[in-house]
Design brief:
381 residues, alpha/beta, five-stranded mixed β-sheet, 37% helix, globular
Length: 381
């Protein structure tokens, strides 16, 4: 019989829009359900997903609004789907109740937030704190920060794997800059892509405790229709899933869902280092700001300034070890971001006076130029 090409993984080299790279990364990761509501500058994700998902047997839903979309995603995930949604800053606001539910009920899903300025499609990183603290209640978040079209593809795959592994929503922190950019994208062969599947129950339904976790802190997750009866509630619940208004039960639940993230720091947190071996001034950046920051560091090096860069591929949990190490090494850290100084507070907290932390921030709808960052490097070298 003739070989049918794999329409889920488009192996090869492409010149692709960032938003389309998100879709291709999701499909390569096994995504089979998407729900979303139109909003710029994320619309190309929904539009491309509406074309591509039916080709691979998946289901696409245009929700009536963002709240419908996030709850459709959580329902699909509980039914066994690898599910995602995509939105932009204003739409992300509306999804917080659904995110709170996904956190408390431990539902694996992926949310892409293409950040924009209020009401306009200009670049910003002003959602960075909301991505961590938006949902109510004690919780941790996993937020990944790609800086290129290739990384949008790779990061979306990783987001699905982390969501399935730790049973929680994972945020891909996109931005207008990279979402609407076209760049070279290399998609590997399917067998070269790591796919992580959620743990399933190993005991019969009558012996199953839905929220009894193993050593990794993550309970197995059956799908609807597999014979396991589970109540998924954001209310405090015991290991059986029963709503239980007991302070010990309440605190134990929230300790476990936070510890399953904090105790797996080495697996979740990723950074990259550039020219840090002898650096005396360190630049910390995430997302599209890494592009200008790295060029500025290289320009500074050409002038004899011992600059280096720490790129945060994971922004939440905070890469505390790596930032603390940089603070011990450098006399000055420059915190570069496209807002008026939000994540800089985390860098200052971790540095804790070990070195000077200087905020290199702006919120003008465009990323910093290499020249602007170089000027800050020279001023503090």
């Amino acid at each position: 019989m003739p070989q049918v090409p794999n329409r889920r993984v488009l192996t090869g080299t492409h010149f692709m829009l960032g938003n389309h790279a998100v879709v291709e990364g999701a499909l390569a990761a096994g995504c089979d359900f998407f729900a979303g509501y139109p909003i710029t500058p994320a619309n190309e994700i929904s539009e491309h997903m509406a074309r591509r998902l039916p080709e691979v047997g998946g289901k696409f839903l245009q929700g009536e609004d963002e709240l419908c979309s996030i709850f459709a995603v959580t329902g699909a995930a509980l039914a066994g789907a690898r599910a995602m949604t995509a939105t932009a800053s204003a739409g992300y606001n509306y999804m917080q109740e659904g995110l709170e539910y996904a956190i408390a009920a431990e539902i694996p899903c992926v949310i892409v937030d293409v950040q924009r300025c209020r009401g306009e499609n200009f670049a910003t990183q002003a959602d960075v704190m909301q991505m961590r603290w938006g949902p109510s209640g004690d919780h941790e978040m996993i937020v990944l920060a790609p800086s290129s079209v290739q990384e949008l593809f790779d990061t979306t795959i990783r987001a699905f794997n982390l969501a399935e592994k730790y049973r929680m929503p994972v945020i891909v922190m996109s931005e207008t800059t990279i979402a609407l950019m076209r760049e070279r994208l290399v998609i590997p062969r399917p067998e070269e892509i790591e796919i992580v599947h959620r743990a399933k129950p190993s005991v019969p339904p009558e012996e199953f405790l839905p929220f009894q976790a193993g050593p990794d802190g993550v309970p197995p997750l059956p799908a609807f229709g597999e014979g396991y009866r589970v109540l998924y509630s954001l209310n405090p619940h015991d290991e059986r899933g029963s709503i239980h208004w007991d302070p010990d039960v309440f605190e134990a639940m929230y300790r476990r869902i936070t510890h399953k993230i904090t105790t797996h720091y080495d697996d979740i947190v990723r950074t990259e280092s550039f020219y840090l071996d002898d650096a005396r001034i360190g630049v910390v950046a995430y997302g599209s700001e890494c592009r200008s920051a790295l060029e500025a560091v290289e320009l500074a090096r050409a002038k004899g300034i011992r600059a280096g860069m720490l790129k945060l591929a994971t922004v939440w949990p905070v890469p505390e070890r790596e930032i603390a190490s940089l603070a011990r090494q450098c006399a000055t850290i420059l915190a570069v971001e496209m807002n008026l100084g939000k994540y800089a507070r985390e860098i200052e907290r971790v540095a804790c006076g070990t070195c000077q932390v200087v905020r290199v921030t702006k919120n003008r709808g465009v990323i910093h130029t290499p020249g602007e960052i170089l000027e800050a490097i020279e001023a503090h070298a």
